[in-house]
Amino acid sequence: MGTCRMALSQLPVEATDDAFWDQFWADTATSVQDVFALVPAAEIRAVREESPSNLATLCYKAVEKLVQGAESGCHSEKEKQIVLNCSRLLTRVLPYIFEDPDWRGFFWSTVPGAGRGGQGEEDDENARPLAESLLLAIADLLFCPDFTVQSHRRSTVDSAEDVHSLDSCEYIWEAGVGFAHSPQPNYIHDMNRMELLKLLLTCFSEAMYLPPALESGSTNPWVQFFCSTENRHALPLFTSLLNTVCAYDPVGYGIPYNHLLFSDYREPLVEEAAQVLIVTLDHDSASSASPTVDGTTTGTAMDDADDFQFILKGIARLLSNPLLQTYLPNSTKKIQFHQELLVLFWKLCDFNKKFLFFVLKSSDVLDILVPILFFLNDARADQSRVGLMHIGVFILLLLSGERNFGVRLNKPYSIRVPMDIPVFTGTHADLLIVVFHKIITSGHQRLQPLFDCLLTIVVNVSPYLKSLSMVTANKLLHLLEAFSTTWFLFSAAQNHHLVFFLLEVFNNIIQYQFDGNSNLVYAIIRKRSVFHQLANLPTDPPTIHKALQRRRRTPEPLSRTGSQEGTSMEGSRPAAPAEPGTLKTSLVATPGIDKLTEKSQVSEDGTLRSLEPEPQQSSEDGSPAKGVLSWKSKLPLQTIMRLLQVLVPQVEKICIDKGLTDESEILRFLQHGTLVGLLPVPHPILIRKYQANSGTAMWFRTYMWGVIYLRNVDPPVWYDTDVKLFEIQRV
């Protein structure tokens, strides 16, 4: 390959000079890594600038070889080698075609004599663009007997299976959705699939070279064509990818330490499959030009409970993998593609409401919740994992819009995954709130935009929480204390929202779950001064000014005192910041909570009624004092003040009568107390449901491609090319 490379950047070479071009794919001993080493970036760019016709011919010839391989069925070893080498070469070259705007249309132009009907010259006006020929060839090759799938021939005497009449639905790669038969694992087939999927992902990656367009309507033509009815393999391939991911067992068939004995060649294929899957699903979020297949291609048409169970169990098993590490270190192989799995889970829930309802139908949803909370807690101090924090929170926001999620959280939490959080005895709701408290009080500064989301999730589930632990009750009051300090309330126009969310949580629990929540009621009584301070919040400009001055001297993000951290769980390690020099990709800003969610009111019969969004108050109309006045009058303090008015004298009387300093007696009194008829009429439950919008669609696209960029390092497909969708930064 070396000598012919040199000739490429010199004189134009005729397309008919087969002896010259064949040198590029004839080599037998190459791997994709070799191709990357042999063809340096500088040379590809030199050919592009100095001999554009040679680069065009190289691409056209390589695609032609793939088309021929797909047509013939790749029977000989030589043909297989040529297909793999062309595939590697195109994977190497495509990013350099995408990075140059002048070349962007090249693959969508037609090539002489490549008619759709294959009739040669006279069919030119009906010719297929090069991109379409390439995508269809890849699809055919992914279901090529004895190359990427098991042959169904009984004996070698049988004639070879005809590529054109082959029904790829019978060749799905793995048992699972819509396919019961699990083919024998085959290392060579897995490797060949992986090379072709890497090329497919590279084709789709043109999206990385366009700046983030705010209208998410910009469809990716590569993905759009690949998922259309033109590609007869779209559905079997989608199913193959989904089944390959969800059936994967990194533990090594249940035997601890098995992975140390056998190298696992399946994982790289599973990663590649997960990445191709989420990119094809992203296409659906934009307006689709081929609705006929899209419903089915992207799993949005699935509604079979067995299929859902298979997918949910598979994703939960893989997400829980890093947690298994902590019981028997190194006993299982630690997978690295949890971010792709989270995007996949998000896409499936967001597109297929039946799947979302299935997830929430049983306590299986907790097998997704616990790993997400583990990742959130683990990544909270790491600036390079801000994207992971966001997607975890977005998934929980989506789930929290459904009543069943809140109900499921009441299940006792007994698994003891070592996490850097205080020890508590309680439910999954306690775990969620304790982790959220930890993120807010000891995460890094760039997580502040997520506070609204975190508290919205707690508000959404609060009417259904039957009994919070004392640890959790104290954490919620600590957050209220921190967020209601005068400097915090006055230092940004939106900060008071956090206090409103917390008051809403307390009101929901007092009105709808008073009976089991004596711990929270007791904590509210103990911290009653915070509520009185809020009711008497100063609104005069001099006091506000003074509070802000005081803050400038001590810019502590949130008061960490008074939180009584308590000991962390045994075996846990503190959340660590990113290693200096870690690469990360930039993300677009996420929309505010008012754009991200839509308010609904829960009616008597449990149905939801959408509410009109409230007009936004502009804080520009004068001084901060004016803004404070307008929201202070709306603080929902009536229920809590009434509770304090009724219970504080009773609790004080018990303490005086019995000379008590013991909490248990007071808690016993509160457990048996009742406020029936004493509180204001219960307010209707408000739920803020996630609503899809162009801002989050764009965020997901940049996050997804950023993950794919950073995870593909061997070979480094996009490294050092001029991507526009995000910036690559070092921590």
From TrEMBL:
Residues 541-628 are annotated as: Disordered. InterPro entries: Hid-1/Ecm30. Residues 560-570 have a biased composition (Polar residues). It holds the Pfam family Dymeclin. Coiled coil: none annotated. GO terms for cellular component: Golgi medial cisterna; Golgi trans cisterna; membrane. This is HID1 isoform 4.
